[in-house]
Write a structure and sequence with these properties.
seven-stranded mixed beta sheet, alpha/beta
Length: 279
């Protein structure tokens, strides 16, 4: 069973400070947060925990103290269910847990079992990706959801009428949760694989989603570009506004042209189109 740390951070004096800390910690691999009065609870895989990096983040916002408790993955479900709220995006997409009631007038009703996997639409990057995807012409298109987490992006693509969808994540928990969410949403056109960008092999796609982090994006952009059909779309998020120039420069090296961006609390999402010639 995997080990997780719950880091309790006192002295959070306002929503803005909490958002800044959450954004900074998300960049270090923390993938769950809860707010309790003036405390922030942050959750991270034990293998990703780095005391020095945590202290540096807190010092940057004039915080210093924290407590660490080890928790088992099953405890995470109870934590999520006690605080998890549905997320409404653009008045058309509702991301909710199975224990929430369906809402009337929603175009895309997405059910996500709220576990440790990244991708419940509460984080800015997932929110922006869902919004951008909803504006795509995706009918019968082939789709890759790279670093799929809960598979929420793949599920939306399925509900929008996409063709074959491949969703990949290298985390066992995410892999299992993604499979569960595919069943919950009756998304039979989604195939879930455990792995990294190497699992793409020689497959080609009309549309690729990659909501991961800056370093992995920069490393894997050549793979995405090679797997993208000419004229296809690559949607990326998981990086900050100040990283956009790096993402653009790397993408342009491989024939990917920026067409649209979105920003939310200094997190960025970007859409690129493949401008390469057909093979």
């Amino acid at each position: 069973m995997k080990r997780y740390y719950e880091v309790r951070i006192p002295g959070i004096s306002g929503a803005e400070t909490g958002e800044i800390v959450m954004a900074l910690l998300a960049g270090l691999g923390y993938d769950g947060f809860l707010e309790e009065d003036d405390h922030l609870l942050a959750y991270v895989h034990a293998d990703d925990f780095n005391r020095k990096e945590l202290s540096s983040v807190l010092s940057s916002v004039a915080l210093s103290g924290f407590e660490i408790n080890e928790i088992e993955d099953r405890n995470w479900n109870k934590i999520w269910e006690s605080d998890y709220e549905p997320v409404l995006i653009d008045n058309s997409i509702l991301v909710r847990a199975p224990f929430h009631e369906a809402a009337h007038g929603i175009v895309y009703d997405i059910i996500i079992e709220p576990k440790m996997s990244f991708g419940t639409a509460h984080h800015e990057t997932t929110y922006m990706m869902l919004s951008l995807i909803s504006r795509l012409d995706i009918k019968m298109k082939s789709v890759l959801d790279m670093g799929c987490g809960t598979a929420v992006l793949a599920v939306l693509a399925s509900k929008m009428g996409a063709g074959d969808i491949l969703a990949i994540d290298n985390d066992d928990w995410a892999y299992q949760n993604a499979r569960e969410n595919v069943l919950l949403n009756s998304a039979g056109n989604i195939t879930i694989l455990k792995g990294d960008a190497g699992a793409i092999e020689k497959q080609r796609f009309d549309i690729i989603f990659a909501n991961i982090n800056r370093n992995i994006l920069l490393k894997d952009i050549p793979t995405y570009a090679n797997a993208l059909e000419s004229g296809g779309s690559l949607l990326m998020s998981g990086f900050y506004a100040e990283d956009l120039d790096l993402i653009i420069a790397r993408s342009e090296e491989y024939g990917l042209i920026l067409t649209e961006t979105s920003i939310r609390n200094n997190w960025m999402a970007a859409v690129f189109i493949s401008d390469k010639a057909d093979d």
